[in-house]
Amino acid sequence: MHIDTDEANAAAIKNGELVTLLLPKEAAKATTPYALV
Predict the structure, then answer these.
(1) Of 10, 20, 24, 30, which is most buried by a Cβ count within 10 Å?
(2) Is pTM, for the whole model, over 0.85?
C-alpha cells in the first residue's frame, strides 16, 4: 500500500490544523510534529 507523499503531507497538515483546534499546543505537537514543521 503506497501513499503519495504530497497527499500524505496535505492530510497531515489538515489533521494537524484540526488537532490544534481541539487540543492544547503541547498535545498537538506530540501527535502531529510533521504537520507543524
Answers:
(1) 20
(2) no
